[in-house]
Write a structure and sequence with these properties.
The protein has 137 residues and is of the alpha+beta class. The chain is built from three helices and six strands; from the N terminus they run ααββββββα. The strands form two sheets. The chain has a three-stranded mixed β-sheet, with no helix packed on it. Strands 2-3-4 form a three-stranded antiparallel β-sheet, with no helix packed on it. The chain starts with 7 loop residues before the first helix and ends in a 28-residue tail after the last helix. The structure holds zinc ion (ZN). Zinc ion binds next to loops.
Length: 137
């Protein structure tokens, strides 16, 4: 079975000494805060309010990734399109995913080597290879 594209729910898992489902009630975008606390041994504050920024999610080496304006990044959750930063503390930013996440993930699965699975949203200004639209020149 091929390796699936990694989402926050599968990446940010509880410590092995705890039941696998102990974080199931934690919203997907908030799991990173619990994970940082146990992995890094430091307290992080879950943002309380929204922030102005909107980010485009991308796939980087088989992981949904959300880049913060501070330079930090985290694994994204298409089922919970928000991102709060554990580094700079920026509030909840909206994250733009493709309209059809499942289709993009299926396209990525065509590449058998997970580290070569990379994808950018067509509207993302940081997209290094914007799509060429036939007939438009
Ligand atoms: Zn940040």
């Amino acid at each position: 079975m091929p390796i699936a594209v990694v989402r926050a729910e599968r990446y940010y898992m509880p410590p092995p000494r705890e039941p696998k489902d102990v974080w199931d009630d934690v919203p997907a975008a908030e799991r990173v805060f619990k994970w940082i606390e146990y992995r890094m041994g430091r307290r992080v504050v879950v943002p309380e309010g929204p922030a102005e920024q909107t980010y485009f999610a991308r796939i980087n080496q088989n992981r949904w990734l959300v880049d913060c304006v501070c330079g930090s990044a985290q694994i994204g959750a298409p089922t919970d399109p928000r991102a709060g930063c554990t580094e700079c503390g920026l509030g909840w930013c909206m994250v733009i995913y493709p309209d059809d996440v499942v289709t993009v993930e299926a396209e990525m699965m065509q590449q058998p080597l997970p580290h070569l699975r990379n994808w950018w949203h067509a509207d993302d200004p940081k997209n290094p290879v914007p799509p060429v639209i036939v007939g438009e020149q």
